[in-house]
Each structure stands twice: as structure tokens, then as C-alpha cells.
């Protein structure tokens, strides 16, 4: 017989291989199923509950980066240290005033929890996602939550500290509390104000301190309405497995609570529409926190129907806040105005371990942007190295007059038809509307900006006198100098020309220079400058030698934390020591006055009071040093107002050491 070929080994290997492949596939399928199951159970982003047509939204799309967290920790660490210094003293003072003060127990809990665990100690996620949005004209804040029980513990302790109990209610797995807004006002507010007034009397001995404001007639905190009325507002605070929700609702509000708390989700959300992602891309914002408002969505509040391309409200309620409907002309012209300013945006543009840049922008149409960009002008000092403190203003007044005249003529040719704008029609028809522009045209050819730079402080009779540089930018500095000579005749005696060294000028005693500091005057091809004080002379020379080509912002300010602290800390330390000296002298006088009943205190009480005073003095000294260390952290802090490619922008930045 012919032997059969041996196929068993090959078959077995094939079978084992096939089985292994299937096991791998099954394992992958199981893993995917688990992951999909986790994803299905994972909480949605809070924006998933924000209706697409929300008037406004503020939210983060991503948690702060590690670098951003380092920035925050670095910038706040000295403040935490200051709080650590003062909290035991404040706690002791509160207990002395009210031995059974339940608020102290609550503050102990909050202080211990936050200092050791941060916001995670209250149950919040790390990282935390949040969203503030509008639902049927109600503000809603939704924050991601990890451990709801910790937040419930916080609420219970807060209730105990305030001696108030708000009955929790449940709605589809969400626990919520209704807290009348008026109940948040302290019952003993008047007593607290009186205590503040008495404590402030000691501050009157601080040298050169302005008068303490009158605290006698401080009204109660404003609340929208008294409790138990139809218009009284409640703060609705809710907790479920994934979120903490805060909103406002009046007693007889007909907006369903499930709609506010998110049990009834919108048909289409801002998260679905990717609205905030598009805003961040359009304005080059980071995802760590953005505010956005679409002006066209404000129109329904005036009874103007939403544009067809805008998201339509899901609620059947009339969103108009007006009792009398607008005319067709007003609806048309207000809609036109809103289209020229389509959105308001705020957020961070850059953040890392050492710097933070952010902005607030009002978007404008191209025509308006181009008009406003002509207002900007070069300003010497704008691009200089930061100093102690700087402030600048740059504005082409002649271009401002051009813009105003352009729109005056446009309104004259086609007046507003809306009755709201009738006063504007009357204004532009007046001959004076053009006449008042003449000074702007004249000034625009003489001065285009002002730059002030503080360079130091000098002490005169325990009073700090600032020294610094003042530059007046001008397309024609010789003409500006001539105008100034008319107001200050002493200038006419100087031979000041561009390129020459600044010259010292002697002003009449008490005139223009009450501190009698030395003054120098100089000129460049772009500005006329004045140096006040010895520390400012070299700065003036340096600034006049620089040439600024690009336009500066309309306004800007900057300061250096290090220089600021170096200059002010000795002055403030001297003032504090003087305050302590006078306060101690006052206490000694009281102790020596045998006729004063306060002097007849027991030795133990006197010793206790002295120990408390010593502790407060030590804490004050340590806190002052920590404060100046905190100020020195800030290498540069600045802001500016400018016209960008998007519109009118307010920008600010913080650079750490």
C-alpha cells in the first residue's frame, strides 16, 4: 500500500494559527467594546447642554497645559504663603469676638481642604471642564464633577455654619437646593460694618493716608427682590454624578427646571455646532478658556426676529424685553448696527510657564477697521525696554476728525429713520457739528501722542516724589515746541534742536515744578521730551535717540515688578515702621493713664494682648516681605488698546521672572 502523505502537522499548525488569529480578533473586539462602553458612560462636555442659540458662552475646551499650571502655581504661591501667615491670627480674632463662631469651623474645613487637596478636595475633576451659557434667558454654570459626595459634604458644612437648612429635592437623579438670593445677605451686616469702622480708626495714624471713607450709611447688599414675592430670585444649586450646576430662577418662573438642569437636552448644542472651536480658530485663541457673544443673538431681546441663518430658539417663549414693539425702521437699522459689530470675544492667546497673553476683542467690519487704523501713529517709547512704569496714548486727532466728518456727511445724506436715533439726526444737522472739528484738525498736525515713563522716586519730607520722562510725539516737533513756549516763556530762551543733548531749564519756584526737581528739555525728529529728576536725564537722552517707525497702540501701559518693588519697598517699610512707632506710643500713653478704665486690666490679659500684638506685627512684617517677593515675580505686566485685523482689541500680558 502506498503511504498517505503526512498532513497532520501542517493542519495542526494552520488550525492553531487560525485559532490564534480569532483569539486576537476577539480580544480586540472585546477591548473596543469595553472602550466604547466607557465612552458611553463618560460624562459629556458641559457645552453639550448649551443650546446652539445661547446668547453667550464661556467655556474651556481643554484643561490647562502643564506649562500653564506651572505659571498659575508660580504666580499664586506667595499669596498662599501670605494667607498661611494671617489665617491663624484672623481665626483667633474671630473666636475672641464670638467664642461659638460656627463660621470658623467651616473656614477651618475649607482652609484645610483647599491647602492639601485643592479643588479636588471639594469633589471637582482635575482637570475641570466648565461652561457658562444661557437657557431661556437664564444663566447656567455647569462644572464637571468627579466625587459628588465631597461637594455634598461642603454644602452640609456651609449650611451648619450659616444656621440655615435648605431642603434638598431630587429630579431624575439630580439633587438640587433652592436658596433664596436674599438669604445670602448676612443678618449682622450692620454690626460687621461697625466693627470694620472701629478697626479702621487705628489706620488714621498712618502717615499721609487719605481720609477713611464714611461707613455710617452703608446700605444693605442689593438683592433683586424681597423673599416670598413673585419676582424673588432663587439660586438653584444642583449636583448629579457628573456635574455641579448653578442657575437663577424666580419663584413663579415658567421655565421648566429640567431644561435648566440639563435633563432636557437641546436638540442641537454649541458643542454639536463646534461654535467655540471656530471662534478660537478665527481669533487665534488657546482652548483653555474663551468667552463669546454674538451680537445678532441680542436682537430678539428687542423683538427683532432672528436672521434666517442664525440658530432658531427652541423655546416658544417670547424673548423680547420690550413692552412696546419696535418700528420696522428701528428693527432694520438696529440690525444694521449689529452687523457692523458681529461678536465680542475674550480668551488667552498664549500661556506657558513664564508668560500669559490674553485679549478682549470687539470684531468690526473691514470699513470701520480701516477707518480706525488710521487713528494710530508712531509713539517714541512704545518699543523701548520696560522700566519702572510706563503709560502711553497715541491718537491722530486729524484722522479722528476725518472719520467723524465722514459719518456726519453720511447721516446728513441719509438720516436715520428710527425714532431712537432722531437726536443724532438733529446733532449732525447743526452747523456746530463741523465747527467743533477744527481744533482736532489743527492739533493733529502738532501732537499725536503722549508717553510717560517713571524712572524713580525721591523723598522730600517723608513724601515720595516721582521722577520720570514725558514725551510729546509730533510730526512737527519744532512747531510743538513753539506752542509750548507760549505757555512756558522760559522754553523760548533755550536753543533746543533735534540731535542736541537735552538742556536744563530753570522754572520759577512753585510753577510747573512744585517739587523743585531739576528739569531737562530735549527734542528729536519725532518728539519733544522733558526729564524731571536726575534719574530721568539719561532716559530722556536714550529715548530721543531712538527712531520709532511702526504705529503704536492707541493706549498702553507697562510696569516692571522688580523695579517697582525695589523703589517702593523701602518707602513702604519706612511708612510702616513710622505707623508702628506712633501706634506703640499711643498704647503706652493709654497704659500710663491711670484714669483710663482700660488701663485697669489684669496682668494675664495684658500679657495676652501683648503676645497678640507681637504675633500681628511679626505676621505683618513677614507678609510685607512675601508681598514684595510676589511683586518681584512679575518681570513685566502690560496692556494695550489697538486696532487689529479683527477689530478693536484690548490685550494684556504677564511675564514672570
UniProtKB/TrEMBL annotation:
Q: Where is this region: Disordered?
A: 583-615
Look up the domain of life of the source. Bacteria
Q: Where is the composition biased (Low complexity)?
A: 591-615
Q: What is this protein called?
A: DUF3352 domain-containing protein
- Organism, as annotated: Lampropedia puyangensis
Amino acid at each position: 500500500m502506498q503511504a498517505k502523505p503526512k498532513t497532520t502537522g501542517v493542519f495542526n499548525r494552520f488550525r492553531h494559527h487560525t485559532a490564534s488569529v480569532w483569539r486576537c480578533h476577539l480580544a480586540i473586539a472585546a477591548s473596543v467594546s469595553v472602550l466604547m462602553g466607557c465612552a458611553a458612560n463618560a460624562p459629556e462636555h458641559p457645552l453639550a447642554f448649551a443650546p446652539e442659540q445661547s446668547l453667550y458662552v464661556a467655556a474651556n475646551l481643554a484643561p490647562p497645559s502643564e506649562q500653564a499650571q506651572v505659571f498659575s502655581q508660580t504666580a499664586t504661591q506667595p499669596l498662599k504663603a501670605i494667607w498661611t501667615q494671617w489665617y491663624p491670627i484672623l481665626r483667633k480674632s474671630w473666636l475672641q469676638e464670638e467664642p461659638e463662631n460656627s463660621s470658623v469651623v467651616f473656614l477651618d474645613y475649607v482652609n484645610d481642604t483647599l491647602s492639601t487637596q485643592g479643588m479636588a478636595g471639594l469633589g471637582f475633576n482635575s482637570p475641570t471642564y466648565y461652561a457658562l451659557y444661557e437657557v431661556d434667558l437664564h444663566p447656567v454654570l455647569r462644572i464637571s464633577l468627579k466625587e459628588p459626595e465631597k461637594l455634598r459634604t461642603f454644602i452640609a458644612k456651609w449650611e451648619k455654619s450659616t444656621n440655615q437648612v435648605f431642603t434638598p429635592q431630587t429630579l431624575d437623579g439630580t439633587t438640587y437646593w433652592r436658596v433664596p438670593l436674599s438669604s445670602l445677605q448676612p443678618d449682622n451686616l450692620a454690626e460687621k460694618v461697625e466693627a470694620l469702622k472701629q478697626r479702621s480708626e487705628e489706620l488714621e495714624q498712618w502717615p499721609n493716608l487719605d481720609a477713611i471713607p464714611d461707613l455710617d450709611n452703608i446700605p444693605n447688599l442689593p438683592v433683586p427682590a424681597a423673599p416670598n414675592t413673585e419676582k424673588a430670585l432663587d439660586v438653584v444649586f444642583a449636583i448629579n454624578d457628573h456635574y455641579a450646576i448653578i442657575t437663577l430662577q424666580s419663584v413663579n418662573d415658567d421655565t421648566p427646571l429640567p431644561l435648566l438642569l440639563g435633563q432636557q437636552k437641546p436638540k442641537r448644542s454649541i458643542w454639536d455646532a463646534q461654535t467655540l472651536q471656530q471662534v478660537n480658530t478665527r481669533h487665534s485663541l488657546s482652548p483653555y478658556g474663551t468667552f463669546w457673544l454674538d451680537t445678532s443673538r441680542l436682537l430678539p431681546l428687542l423683538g427683532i426676529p432672528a436672521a434666517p441663518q442664525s440658530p432658531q430658539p427652541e423655546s416658544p417663549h417670547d424673548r423680547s424685553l420690550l413692552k412696546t414693539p419696535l418700528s420696522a425702521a428701528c428693527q432694520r437699522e438696529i440690525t444694521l448696527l449689529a452687523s457692523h459689530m458681529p461678536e465680542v470675544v475674550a480668551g488667552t492667546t498664549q500661556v506657558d510657564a513664564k508668560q500669559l497673553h490674553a485679549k478682549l476683542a470687539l470684531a468690526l467690519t473691514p470699513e470701520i477697521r480701516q477707518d480706525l487704523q488710521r487713528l494710530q501713529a508712531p509713539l517714541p517709547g512704545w518699543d523701548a525696554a520696560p522700566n519702572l512704569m510706563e503709560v502711553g496714548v497715541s491718537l491722530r486727532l486729524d484722522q479722528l476728525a476725518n472719520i467723524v466728518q465722514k459719518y456726519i456727511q453720511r447721516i446728513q445724506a441719509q438720516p436715520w429713520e428710527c425714532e431712537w436715533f432722531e437726536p443724532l439726526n438733529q446733532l449732525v444737522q447743526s452747523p456746530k457739528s463741523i465747527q467743533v472739528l477744527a481744533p482736532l484738525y489743527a492739533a493733529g498736525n502738532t501732537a499725536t501722542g503722549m508717553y510717560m515713563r517713571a524712572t524713580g522716586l525721591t523723598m522730600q519730607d517723608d513724601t515720595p516724589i516721582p521722577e520720570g520722562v514725558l514725551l510729546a510725539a509730533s510730526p512737527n516737533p519744532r512747531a510743538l515746541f513753539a506752542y509750548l513756549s507760549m505757555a512756558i516763556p522760559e522754553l523760548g530762551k533755550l536753543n533746543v534742536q533735534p540731535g542736541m543733548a537735552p538742556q536744563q531749564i530753570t522754572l520759577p519756584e512753585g510753577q510747573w515744578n512744585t517739587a523743585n526737581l531739576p528739569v531737562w528739555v530735549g527734542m528729536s525728529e519725532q518728539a519733544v521730551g522733558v526729564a524731571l529728576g536726575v534719574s530721568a536725564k539719561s532716559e530722556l537722552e536714550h529715548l530721543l535717540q531712538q527712531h520709532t517707525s511702526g504705529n503704536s497702540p492707541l493706549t498702553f501701559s507697562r510696569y516692571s515688578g522688580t523695579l517697582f518693588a525695589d523703589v517702593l519697598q523701602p518707602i513702604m517699610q519706612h511708612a510702616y515702621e513710622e505707623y508702628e512707632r506712633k501706634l506703640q506710643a499711643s498704647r503706652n500713653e493709654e497704659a500710663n493713664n491711670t484714669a483710663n478704665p482700660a488701663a485697669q486690666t489684669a496682668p494675664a490679659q495684658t500679657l495676652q494682648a501683648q503676645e497678640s500684638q507681637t504675633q500681628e506685627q511679626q505676621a505683618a512684617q513677614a507678609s510685607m516681605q512675601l508681598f514684595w517677593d510676589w511683586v518681584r515675580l512679575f518681570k513685566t505686566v502690560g496692556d494695550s488698546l489697538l486696532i487689529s485685523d479683527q477689530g478693536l482689541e484690548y490685550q494684556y500680558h504677564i511675564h514672570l521672572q
